[in-house]
Fold these 2 entries.
Entry 1:
Amino acid sequence: MKIRISTMLLISFATGTFFFTFFTSDRSIENLLLSLFVAFLYTSVFTFGNGLLNDFLNTKYSWIEDTKTRITTGIIATILVNVVLVLGCNYVNFIWLQKANPAQFLSGSMGTINWLIINIALLISAILHAKSFMDEWKKASKKEIVEQKFIAKSANAQFESLKNQLDPHFLFNSLNVLSSLIDENPSQAQRFTASMSKIYRYVLEQKDKELITVEEEIEFAKTYCELLKTRFEDSVNFEFQVEENMLKKFVVPLSLQLLLENCIKHNFATSGKPLFIKIYSENGYLLIENNLQQREQMKESAGIGLSNIVQRYSLLSKLNVSIEKSNEFFRVKIPILTNKISNMKIQKNSDAIAYQNAAERVQELKGFYSNLTSYCLVIPTLIFINLFTSSNYLWFWWPMFGWGIGLGMHALKTFGVGKDWEEKQIQKILNKKQ
C-alpha cells in the first residue's frame, strides 16, 4: 500500500504540473493548486477504484484455475466501474470546480472528453489486470517448479538408496557361500573366489545404471549361475528360454541376480531333490520360476532382495512386479521395459518442461495484452485527431472496428474455445499412443 500511495502521489504531481505548465494560461498559485488537486482526484480515484476491484476479483476467481471466468467478469466489471469513476470525476471537475453547464455534460466537447478519459482509464485498468495476471502466473509456475524439483530429488534419493543396498547384499551372500565352501571343498572355494571377483566387478559397474538390456542381464545371470553350480553342483539346475526379440529391451540391473539368490536362500536343494530354476520371457515379462522346496527353518530374512526390485520398478515404471505362489512353484514376473527413459528421468526434467510451458504461455499472454494496450492507446488518439481535425467525416470507425475484430480473434485464440479444443485434441492423441 505504501508503494501504491507513493506512486500515486508522484503521478499526481507530475500530471498536475504538466497540465498547469502547458494547458493553463493563468499560471497563478491558485490554478497550480487546483491543477494538482484535479490530478490527485483522478489518480486516486482510478488507482484505488481499480485496485479494489482487482483485489476483489482475485479473491473470487483465480487467474490460474478460473482464467476465463476471471477475464470475463474482469472485462465487464472494469468497463462498468471505470465508466462510473470517470463520469464522477469529470462531473466534479467540470461542473463543480469549473462551473460548466450540467446540461452539456454528456454532449459536445465534454462528451468527447468523457469518452477519451474512459478509454485512458480502461487502458490503465488493463495494465493493472495484466500485471496482476503475470504476478499470479509467475507464483504458480514457481510453485509447480519447486514441487517438481522436490519430487525428482525425493525419487532420486530413494532410488540411490535402493541401489546402494546391492553392494553389501551381494557381498554378504557371496561370503556366506564362500565360508561354506572353504570347509566343504577348498579347491572349489578358490575357483569360487576368482569367479566372485569378476562378478563383483560387474556388480559395481552396473549398479549405478537405472536400466540395462535384457541381453546383458541374462549373460550376467548365466555367469552367476555358473558360480552357484560351483557350490551346489547337480543339486541346482538352470534353464534359460528368453525370446530373441526381448534381448534388446530393458530391465533393472541385477534383478536376476537378486531373484536367483532369493530362490537359493528360501529353498533347499539336494542331488536327490534338485532345485529347478527356469528363466524365460512371456507377454512382455521376464519370469523367474522355481519348484517350491521351502526350507522349514530359516534365519530371519532382511527382506532386501525381492522388495528392492519391487521398489525400484515402482520408481521407474507404472508396470508392477508380479509374484505368484502355489504348492508346486514360486514365480516372479518383472516387466521388460521398451523405453530406456524412465518415469524418474521424466520427473527430473518436468521442472524444465513446466517452466518452458509457463514461459510460452506468459509470452502468449504478453502478446495479447500488448495488442490490447496498443488498441486502448491508439484508438482514443485517432478519435481525438478525427474529431478535432475533420469532425464532418468520422473515419476513426474503420480502424476501430477493423483492429477490434483482430483483437477479438487474438483473445479467442488466447483464452477462447479454440485453445481448449486444440489442447483436448493433443491430449486425446497422447492417450491413444499410451
Entry 2:
Amino acid sequence: MGLDIQQNISLKPYNTFGLDVLADNFVRINSAQDFIDLKKNHQKLFEKGLFILGGGSNLLLTHDVSGIVIKNEILGIEKVKESDEFVWLEAGGGVVWHDFVQFTVDNHWAGLENLSLIPGTVGAAPMQNIGAYGVEIKDCFESLDAVNINSLEIEKFNGAQCQFGYRESYFKRGGKGQYLITKVCFKLRKKAEISTSYGAIQEVLKQKNISNPEIKDVSQAIIEIRKSKLPDPKDIGNSGSFFKNPTVSKELADKLKLNFPGIPSYAVEGSSDVKFPAGWLIEKSGWKGFRKGDAGVHAKQALVLVNYGMAKGKEIVELSEEIKKSVWNMFGIQLETEVNIM
C-alpha cells in the first residue's frame, strides 16, 4: 500500500502553538524506507521545500508551508545491548518523548527521569539537545541513525559528531535540513545516580516525605512541577520555554548582581561565565501576564509565550522581539529564542 499524500492540510493539530497554517502536501512515514521511496518516487514535491515534523512542540509557524511536510511516525523501542551496569535502548524517531521516558522509568533504567513530560518526539530530542533539571540528552546519548536527504544513505552519528551544545546540535547548524532522524540509541544505567539538586525537586520530595528517592519518585516530582508551572498546550497554545537561559561573562554578571540584588544565577560548568534564568529577566521587565490580541506571555511563567486562540505566528514573533528589546534595555542581555521559527 502506497503512502497517503494529502493536499492543503491545516497544521493546526500538529503544532503545540495551535497555529492554523496550511501545508501544500502532507504525508506520514513509518520507516526510513518510506522516506527513501517517497523521495525517489515524488521528487517533484520536494523541489519547493521539505519540512520534517515531529511533535510540533518546539516550533513557531509564521506562514503556509510549500513543498512537502513529512510527519515522522517511526515507532518502536528495542533493547539492543546490555552489560552488568548499563542497558542500550533504541527508539524510533516518531516515539513520543514522554512515553519513552516513562518506559525507561517503569523498567528502572536511569538517566532520563529528569526529562519527564518534555513535549516532542525522540527524533527531535537530540536536534535540540533537550534538557531540564540539570540533565541533557547528551548525558545518556549513544548514537543516532539518520537518512541523508540528498544521498538517501543512512548515516550513523555518535555524540561527538552531533556537536551538542546548550539547546544546540549539528542538526540545527551545519546539518540543518539535511537529515531525517530515524532512530536514537541511549545508554542508561541499571543503578540510578539520582539528581535532585536542581529546581524544586527536593522540596516536592520533602513534601511527600520521600528521603531516599527512586527514579520514579524523581520523575513524578518533575511531572508535578512542570504541570504546576507550564500550561498544557491542549488548553492554551504554547511551546514551553520560548527563550534560552542566557550566559554572560563574570564581569557583566558581577555588575548585574550589584545593580539587581537577589537576581538568581547559576555557575556554568568548566567556565567562569554565569547563567541567568530568562523567565526572571522577562518578569522583571514587566512582561508576565501581558496580552495583546491573542498573543501573550503566560500569567504563571514569563518564559512561556502563548496563543490564546487565534494569534498568528507573526504576532508571537513580534511580541518576542519586543521582549528581547526590553530585556536588553534593562539588563544589557541579549535573549536568544529556543523555539524554531519558520
